[in-house]
Design brief:
The chain has helices spanning 2-15, 20-47, 52-59, 63-70, 79-84, 89-102. The protein has 119 residues and is an all-alpha fold. It has one domain (2-102). It is globular and about 50 Å long. The termini are far apart.
Length: 119
């Protein structure tokens, strides 16, 4: 857990730093980490007997909303760990693409990690 905490602190420091490009990249990565942390918290709550109503109330959701969002939850490794593991890189990219499609964000630009080039 200390390693994950250190990675998150590093990302927060980069978001608050002076380099805007690095800050944006860190903010994007931090957003992915927050999703993972939320999933982990829900899995932990379920393992400790929390029902969907209690989880929903704590997350500002309805019981049905919490169950719909997390009902088929399987918590993987944190995004920064998966991204570093070359053998799981394709799985990570597929999951990111699938999440973007599921959220209706497929086709939005900006995933190449750099500014657009106008011809």
């Amino acid at each position: 857990m200390a390693r994950i905490r250190n990675e998150l602190v590093l990302l927060i420091d980069q978001v608050l730093g002076d380099d805007p490009k690095r800050a944006l990249a860190a903010a994007c990565q931090l957003r992915q980490e927050i999703v993972w942390l939320e999933q982990r918290a829900v899995a932990h709550a379920r393992a400790n007997g929390f029902d969907w109503g209690r989880i929903g109330r704590n997350l500002g959701l309805t019981r049905q909303g919490a169950r719909k969002k997390f009902g088929n939850l399987t918590v993987a490794a944190p995004p920064h760990v998966v991204a570093r593991d070359r053998s799981r890189q394709q799985e990570y990219e597929f999951t990111r693409l699938w999440n973007r499609i599921s959220e209706g964000r497929y086709g939005e630009g900006g995933d190449d990690g750099d500014e657009p080039v106008f011809w």
